[in-house]
Structures are given as C-alpha cells and as structure tokens.
Fold each of these.
Amino acid sequence: MNLHTKTNNVLRKRVTLVVLAASLASMSYVVSAGSAGAASNPGFVLYSSQGYDHASVNAFNATKPGFTVTLNDNSTGPLMQQIQAEGNNPKWGVLWVDGASAFSQLDGQGKLLRNSVPKVKFNSLGLQNVPKHKSFTPTGLTVTGALCYDSSQITAAQLPSSWSQLTSAQYKGLVGMNDPSQSGPTYPMIAGLMAYMGNYKSGSTAKSVAAGESFFTALKANGLVVNSTNGPTIAAMEAHTISMATVQSSACYGAALTNFASMKVKYLNPSIALPSVIGINGKQPKVVREDAQKFVDWVLSPAGQSVMQTADPQGDSLFWPVIKGENPANSIIPPLSSTHAISTNPYTWGKLETQVNTWFDSNIVNGL
C-alpha cells in the first residue's frame, strides 16, 4: 500500500467516524425528545373489574384528550394482589372496582390522591359514599347479598325469610356464594353481615367477626357451595347444582334479562349497599395524576354515566345512579328501599379484609 492510498484510507475512516458520531447524536436526541414527550404526557393504566370498563376507556380515548388510558381488566381479588405485589413501583394509575373497603386500605397506606372527588351534584346515595378526605369516588350503586334464586327449582313461598334460616336442613346443599378472595362484592357482603349479626355499633369488632364466622361455619356444614365469582355461581344455578345464591344484584338481574328467565331476586333483611368506586394513585407523577383526574371527571359526567348505563346492559350497567337527575337504566331494577340495604364503614371493615378472607378460604372454601 503506497503512502497516498494509506492517507486516503485514514481520511475515509475519520469521515466515517464523524458521520457515525453525528448519527448517534441525532438518534440520541430523537430518543431523548420522545422520552421527554412521553414523560410529559404518558397516560396511565386503569385497573378495573367493571363490565363497562372497555367501553368507557374506548369512549374516553376517542375524545382525544392528548393521552391514552390503557386497561388492565380482571376480577377485584387478582387486581388487589397485583397492586400489593407492585409495592413501591406501582403500574396502576386508577383503580375502579366494586366496594370501598379496598380503597380504605389504600388510603390508609397513603396511596390514594385525596381531594380527587369531582365537583358534581351527588344524590343522597352518592353523598353517603363520599369519604371524609375525598380520596375515592362512588360511581354507581348495586346491592350485594341479594338472594338470587331459580324459580323453576324453588318457589318464592319456599324461600327463607331470614339469613339464619339458610342454615336449616330444608336448604341443605341448595345455597351458593362467591369466594371473597376473588369476588369484589363478596367481602363487603360478609363484613355487612358480620356487623349486623354482631350488632356492631362502635368499639371492638371481635364480637361481630365471631358471630359471622359462626354463621358461615353453619352454612358450610349445611352444604354451602362456593364458586370464584358471579359468573360461575350463576352457572351453577343454571346447571341445577344449586337453586339459590347470595350474589350481587346486577348479576342476578343480568341473568334474568338474558337466557335465564326463571331467575328471580329476594332481598333478605339486610342486604348490603355496594358502591362502585374509582380512585387515583397518589404516588404517580403529577402529570399522570392530572391525566387520571380528567378520566375520573369524565366518568362522572353525563357522557361517562351514559356509557356506564348502556355498555353492559345484562350486567354491571344494572345499577342505581349516584348523580342527581340520573335514573336506573332498566325497569327491572326496583326502588332501593325494597332491598333493605345497609352500609358499613369501609375504614372499620377494610382493615379486617385480609383476616376475614384468609379465615374464609381456610375454613369455608378449603375446610373439611
């Protein structure tokens, strides 16, 4: 190789290195700019167990708010397990499930954004379910503990008139319910029954928990059938494995509106009021919290309420509204007063959820 050729090769290598460096710098700028853009407006992940959540997310995203809501849909139990597993590295931006006990726990851990309740006109149902620190928001109301029954198997006259009668021999093997570790509506029902059976007013809940454990132990001895969630429990009635079950009101009305015309509802005294609740992760960056607030505001708007009431017409859309001027979507939903619904304090009973669910799974679901 002569000197001239060697010099040219050196020059070409230097030019190539300069071009490569410039290209890398340009790519780095693009990535950095993209990352900065994403960080400034990333959107958030919605963790939800609601039957209308897909439609709600699609409708909201179609409004082109400048960010995208991504949905993680699952039953309440697995969602809460996921949130707890994420610990100090949360993926969720908003949680939307039935029952306030999960939110009271998150609020007690300092994980919820307080003062996040939209400035809307709640009716009395809504006002009753807005917490002191406004750290989560009621979006609708159903009833848990509705006695759903197949009228082709058992007549209204043959039904029990009280909870205690469910443990009598005439109903042996006929009664079903859901697993509170999987089904969001079920722990609030158990907590409400414990409070009622133990005549809980204030102070220690130990007496109420003991009374509830005694009742469910007797129910188990009488052949109680436990399935994971509303769907399998309703299916067990369709298969005539059981003839009645204590489930969420919307699940029973939904079955009656589809292909299960013999499905009816009786409300024992009491049933338990069950708000659908939405809350924002207060540990996310400010821009994520602001985006999340826009979604929560939209859910409580007329447009958001319309999607909630129409997107799952044989399921979760069958609720009592919490906004003034809104009415139930279907005439199958009776006046709430006919349900004998009572409310429990989620901050009192939320603290006991893990304890009660663990006992229930050990002694009722898996017990001999």
Note: The CA atoms of residues 321 and 327 lie 6 Å apart.
Amino acid sequence: MLKDKTALVTGSTSGIGLGIARALAAQGANVMLNGFGDRGEIERARADMERSFNVRVMHHAANLMHATEIYEMVEWTCAQLGPVDILVNNAGIQFTSPVEEFPRDKWDAIIGTNLSAAFHTIHDALPFMQRNKWGRIINIASVHGLVASVNKAAYVAAKHGLVGLTKVVALETAGSGITCNAICPGWVRTTLVEKQIEARALQAGVDIETAAEQLLMEKQPSHQFVTVEQVASLAAYLCSDAAAQITGASLTIDGGWTAQ
C-alpha cells in the first residue's frame, strides 16, 4: 500500500510511535525514526524493522525543542530516503501539577515538544508533499485535545492546540492530495501512562494493577486500555487511499471516554 513512500515519525523509539513506524513499514514505507533512548535498543529496533519488512529504516536524534534540528532532520530524511510523504507527529512529554504550582520551564517544554515541534515539522515537510501532490500528516493528539483533566494544564493546552493546528492545515491543503488528521487516544499503557499509574499507586498505597484499574474506571468506560497496535492500525488506515477524503478530523480511540 505504501511501497516507496517515505515516513517520518517523531518520538518513535518506543511506545505508540514505534508501533506506528512498524505499521507503516509493514505496508512498504521507508521510515525515519526519531527520539531518544538507549542507542543499542534503538539500533536493534531499527534493524529488526528493516529486516522484517524489507524496507529502509534510519534514525535521527533531533531534539524537537530546537527548530533548527527539526529542519535538519527533515532535510536529512529527504536526502537519505526521499521526500517526506507521511509525517506522524507523535513525540510528547507530560508533567502534572496544579496551575498555580506548575513550573514555568515544564510548561515551556511541554508546549515546545507537544505542539511547537509539530508546527515546525509540518512547516518543513509540507512543501515536499505539495510538490508531489500527495501527503499524509497525522498528529497524535489525545482525548485531552478534546476534554480536560485536572493538573494537566500544559498537556491539555498543547493537545487542544494540536487539534486546532490539524484543522488549519487540513483546510489549507484540502483538495491537494494531502490530508491532515489527529488521532486522539484515551489511556494507552505506554511509559508515559505507566509513570502516572506508579504515582497513583504510591499516593493511594495500592499495588500497580489496582492503580491501573482505578485509572481506567475513572475515565474509560470500556475499562480496557487502548493498545499500541490499535492506534498504529488507525494511523496506517489514514495513509490509505480509502481515507483520502478524511481530513481535518479528530478521531477518538478511547473506549468511550469522550462519549460521556
């Protein structure tokens, strides 16, 4: 389906991003990974993907807080793998605190990583898509791009902003062969969420699995975690011809969270 397409996936050395990268590689896309982590683990994931799907897979460690590094990553991707056809903005960080206690540097870091970085990658990759008259931009937002939770001012603000950015880009590219959509997952048991579960367990004096169940029961009516594979499959679908008229959408995959 995506043979010879080039996909750039930010925050793809683990979790949802890595799952999406694998799903796109499975459809024949060459993939540029991005993110931090243990170099050996990143190389093993890269090599395994390349070997498993017979595509080219590379890694760029751009720090998404810096626009110049994002530009260099996009340009290097185009030079090594070909013009970017698919851009998945997945990178994200989290910090929780009441607004009046929220550290200013944490606010800046979350807005920078979760929102501004997506603007910069789109800004730099979109001209290549426009020249080729085909492109898929997928922003991994969150249910928190649609609804709020306490103590998550920066994250909620960034994800709401990402949904808004998605709509603007969709309108500006409508009818051009380029689509831009947001995927809004509920609880997915990634490292980011695992840290919240651990903090809850510590605060409530319960074990990890009890804390996880409590987390689900508060927000997610299905009482089941969304899986990485489910999010990745939705991303792959949005890259297909069947999804050519889906643009500007915020697609929830949240076990009923936002239906309440």
Note: DSSP finds eight helices and seven strands in the chain.
Amino acid sequence: MTNWPIGLSTGCFYTEPLIDRLETIRASGFSMIEVVFSSPHLDYKNPARVQEAAARIDTLGMEAYSFHAPFADDIDISSPDAATRQRAFEAILPAIDAAALLGVHYFVIHPGPENSDIPSREERLLRIENVCGVLDRVAARCGEVGIQCVLENKLPHLMFGQSADLLWILACLKGNRVGACLDTGHAHLAGDLFALVCKMAPYLRLLHVHDNKGHGDDHLPPGDGRIDWTALLKELAAVNFTGALILELAGDGSPDIVMARARRARSYLRQRARRLALANHTGTATHL
C-alpha cells in the first residue's frame, strides 16, 4: 500500500480557537485532522465546547482521526511518587473523554515529562515500570470508549527520548492495547528514523510527518529539510504500513501561508507515493 491518507495536525493553529480554523483547513482540501490539546485551541475539559467542535467537524464533512494528549513537566506518569503519577493520570482522563466525544481512532501520548533530566539507569528502570503501570490504565480507559492509545517517540534529548526506551515500554505493556505513533522529525534528530520504522512496525498506527535540517525540531514541510522521504516511504511500504500520515507543521505566518505549506507538503508526499506505487507495479527502478 502506498496510497496512505494524509491529514493535518491542528497544532499549526494551537494559539487560535479550533472552531475558527476548521473551515480554513477544509478549504485546503484536508478532511482528516489530529486535534491538539492546547486550551486556547480547544477547551477539552469542557464537554460543551468539545461537542460544538465535533458537530462543526461533522458538518464540514471532516474526520477527527486522532487526538494529542496533554504533555507538560508536571504531567509525569513516570514519577517515583505515586501521588504525582495519580495526578498525571487524572489530568489525562478529561482528554480521553474529549477524544471520545470527537470520535477519534487514536489517542497520542508521550511516555514521560517534557524535561531533559536523564536519570540514572536504576531510576530509569523504575520510571519505565511506572510509565507502563499508568499507560495500562490509560489504555484500558481508551478501550472503554472505543479508542486506541498510541505512544509517540520523543525528542532524543528528553527523558525516554531514546528508541530503546520506547520499545522497552511497548514490550512491557499488558496485552496488545497500545500502538505507536512515529514522529519523523524526532526520529530524524535521533538518527534512527529508518530503524524505528522496522522496529515499531508491529505497533505502528500513524505517523506525525514533518522535516528538519538535523539540528532542531523545525516542523518543516517534507522536502524542506534533510529527511530522505523516498527511502522512508519505501520502508513504510515494506512493512505494510496502512495508517495515516498526519502533517505536523509549524504555524509560522498567516493562515494562508500555513495552509499553502500544508498543501505543498501533501502534494510532495503524494507525488513520491505515486512514483513508488508505479515502480512497484512495473518492477522498474523508477527515480522517485
């Protein structure tokens, strides 16, 4: 399969009300979105506001494909302190309820706090065990409302930002209730993008798609950085990936400029995917 659906994360408009930007997104031909948790963007703790957004999404013929869970330093599901972990779990629950009201397929979550304090090996093992305990509870709640929880790889300088930690967590979780979301920009900065596609293949449900130049988390459109998108799409086809590609782009500039970048990114990916499909069909080494 190479005709992966391409959606857009609403994070490019995270400082503006979601409901004010849905028509902007739809007018550019994007019907599939990932909704982000930002309170100025969507008051996800207010069911009435979430239902209003869900109704507007439906009216516009759009689909909320996924929802990005809140993340912050104080939402620490890995903490050695049980009370801190419980508060983190309780902070996540309203987001799951919001995701259910939006009717999403996937609930994207980070495995730990957003800080660069890398613990000792002993503490890391303890924290991984704590992450698994909370994620099992998150996954169970997601399952109750018909959503799958998916774990996203983080930036390499952050806690649990190494691919080995992510894979360890996925392997330690109970059952097969938690999938994975591969963030291309994060993996590229970590230097293991293509290896992660193969290693995460059994868990892989969707991709956060953006580019960078190898130095910072730029959230550039595919093709504007240094990621080899031809090679990446080949790897996705090789592991029979069947999920969606969600563009996660920076929101610099006016809405028109942001959406022009999003359309260009979508065209770039579609063109390469079509050439890959043609090459596979003909058995030729078509230049992608």
Note: The beta strands are 6-9, 32-35, 63-68, 106-109, 148-152, 178-183, 204-209, 244-247.
